[in-house]
């Protein structure tokens, strides 16, 4: 009996001791600078990258390859931004100027689709034959430029895992009070969860430019006037029809056709246009790049939004009545009988005019705008598939399509990333303009190349002086050849911040950004920004003082293409 009691006493003592040390250990962890589970913990590394975009990941990979510690602080749960968020039909431009880690990404896409297991819903040879001679597959260069969203995300996650990159997800910058600066440098920033991130250099790789704004760096939202930089394609561009995203035939904007007293149809702005070339605070339209499937076993019928109102699509019904028949022109094929479906035509997936406040909006207001975009676009797809005002031929074809069942599986098969085509743009010492992009001036200190057209989607939908509806803001001007992007476009003015680089919301005009804003270019600039960050850390200097000769040599040794003479074969 005594022995039994002794055993019970010893057992209680052991349990008490274990519990005591557990509590002490927990308290010790909470006071530690590295307490992983503590919302008030301090996380420190050489480089802090804010954002979860493709640029953020290439920046982090480059920093690790150069021997520096790096933390990716991502507001997003999913990595890769638009590249994994539905934009699988890559806007490449001239592929021979895409090098470095960007090309590595597209090489890994190619290698993935060499596996038979990658072709679940379609035979590889069917897509391969279709893709030869198109942007899809470049067998000689062992690259592939078109892919499914989940494949892109897998590759970005591979980059993170292979390089042992620390990523903290769902961490949102405290934009009001989170950034601490001393002597012209960011010392740290705090996220809304209470975590603090300290670094020697910081990179803002978000689409919105939240960190640069919170750090007091100058920026612009909207279109500059043509007078600002002596441009032609900036500001209001009414009557410029370079794509087929306008009303070809006359369509009445009024509830009762031809009766201006009956009020405007939904999705039309009631305002007067200033003269062409006038600047404003408006940004080009956003949408979601949907992954649709035509395989019967891998598609989900387009859902009917809870607040669905067919009247808001009356304008599209009138477009059909006018004879327009281009509904499926931007159902761009990606592997496995899927699409990257983009905006096309006068009334499509772009939610024109409903995003002007997004760049500066609070997180909650942005969420509201994103939900409104989602409701609009889901309602549009439901309208196309079901409404009797849609031509029978279109509804019949739409019945073959639906949301891809195996994409965005944690978000109702809907893309997790809205297409933020432009938001803030930094104003640095060097501002890229259409003169740089169109080859009218030489660009010095190149950190990468672009080649895509000056591309802006529509910015507003208005009533013409003649009483018809029309879109405004869409431009598409092609450069004669690829162009260099200056180092000055990714660094702020020195007096504003000495240890920040910005590879996404770069220093450029609205027109120039229309070309620069492509995902391969963001990956290129992300890598270049990280390279410059490491050189600044090693030299204990401001990012504006980095020796360009050293930067140039390192970028070229890592496969970046900086000038036309270096373009890949």
Give a summary of the structure in a few sentences.
With 569 residues, the chain is α+β, with helices and mostly antiparallel strands. It has helices spanning 2-31, 54-65, 100-112, 124-131, 149-162, 210-214, 226-229, 314-321, 363-386, 392-398, 434-437, 510-516, 519-539, 548-557; strands spanning 42-50, 70-74, 137-138, 143-144, 166-169, 179-182, 185-190, 196-204, 219-221, 290-293, 299-300, 331-334, 338-341, 402-404, 424-426, 446-450, 454-456, 460-463, 469-472, 475-477, 483-486, 500-501. The protein has 14 helices and 22 strands.
Please give the structural blueprint.
Blueprint: H1 2-31, E1 42-50, H2 54-65, E2 70-74, H3 100-112, H4 124-131, E3 137-138, E4 143-144, H5 149-162, E5 166-169, E6 179-182, E7 185-190, E8 196-204, H6 210-214, E9 219-221, H7 226-229, E10 290-293, E11 299-300, H8 314-321, E12 331-334, E13 338-341, H9 363-386, H10 392-398, E14 402-404, E15 424-426, H11 434-437, E16 446-450, E17 454-456, E18 460-463, E19 469-472, E20 475-477, E21 483-486, E22 500-501, H12 510-516, H13 519-539, H14 548-557
Parallel strand pairs: 1-2, 1-8, 2-5, 8-22
Antiparallel strand pairs: 3-4, 6-7, 7-8, 9-15, 10-13, 10-14, 11-14, 12-13, 16-21, 17-20, 18-19
